[in-house]
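Hi all, a correction to my earlier message: I attached the wrong file for UDP-N-acetylmuramoyl-tripeptide--D-alanyl-D-alanine ligase. Here's the right sequence:
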Amino acid sequence: MIKRTLNDIAEMIQIENDLSPYGKKEIQGVSINSREITPGQLFIPFKGERTDGHQYVSDAIEKGAAAAFWQEDVPNPPTHLPIIIVKDTLTALQELARAYRNQLSIKVVGITGSNGKTTTKDMMANLLALKYKVQKTEGNYNNHIGLPLTILALEERTEVAVLEMGMSGKGEIDFLTKLARPDATIITNIGESHLQDLGSREGIAEAKLEIINGLKSDGLMVYMGDEPLLRNYFDSYEGQATVKTFGRTEQNDLYPVNIQQLDNGSKFQVNASEVEFTLPILGMHNVLNALSAMIVAQHFNVSFAEMEAGLVKVRLTNMRMEILQGQNGEKIINDAYNASPTSTQASIELLANLPGYKKKILVLGDMLELGADEERFHEEIGLSICAENIDAVFTYGRLGHLIAKGAKEVLSEDRVFAFDEKAPLIEELKKHVNDETIVLVKASRGMKLEEVVEGLQ
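and the right structure:
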């Protein structure tokens, strides 16, 4: 984490007051939450519409904070405390992170995409940790606040940082990538998330492609080569970065061969190696995520033979293809962290092809932020369900009813159940499961379908 004196900070960012009385005082790390302050941290308050973090500055310092930012337009800064006055506390946080990153001798991998960012980040960190000291984005700290906090949490002896970059609109990835200055970047895919804000898949692609704006000129750009929107862009790319692709098809630099779906993951090989890889994560889409990480790992001189040991140990963040057991012996795949048509379709395909279960049940909820075509997307998901491989479909939410409507076109009505409340859904679902059943649960984060998972356990 950042360890600097207040005099150092005064040289890293623009400040508006005299720090000489406290200039030799050192901060160790930063926090934006006064309730979680640890001794020595720099507390950064934000002035919000409902609450103003400045009212907690004195409390934070009392709890051990070494110093605190104070926004210039907030009246009555305490004169008896180590306060750093800045024009805007959010901007100061970002500029401090930028200055700190520029002082670090570190390699950075930046990852974006509509789906699979966090999974790819976890895989990437595992592979690079075979040779380097690695830190990665924790949780969902991937936006204009989270990424600066992640950078300021980097140890000076860290060799590689794996940074996830999220967005909801244009210009956001551009800001993040120029702050992080990555040596390698990955675009996992282009889906439908944020259609509400960006209007089209073309708009989403343009926003994701901003990641290349901060890539070092001699860096590596890795993207999903099966996506025409990305391939069309890079077919006319004139930059100096090395560009490589991954995907299902042979037109890519790296693609999978000899894939074997297991009940707890996958075994596969790639076109560029004879090594057989074991990935303890379900789904073909996660094999593809692994390929993108493998290209970057190879760029950092990790061999395919070494990667086998790294992939087999990958563990994902909770609620991403998390395998659990229910009260009646059923297996549950908790993939309730987020959902889009692309990722939901991948999850349905996974469940349909999973061996070893006599009964397969889908529990699907609303997919949010899809814009004007949200109803069509939901009905199409229902229509895409294979009646031969899926035994029952349970839906939750207003838009979930449209998934059920589509599903009833391909499954008999007695195999499709639509609910507006979770309690009756859980009660009915329990009647359909036993120790030969597997249940896959997926929806957007706002639907909180992990509560259904908890109801089965």
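Sorry for the mix-up. The longest strand covers residues 256-262.
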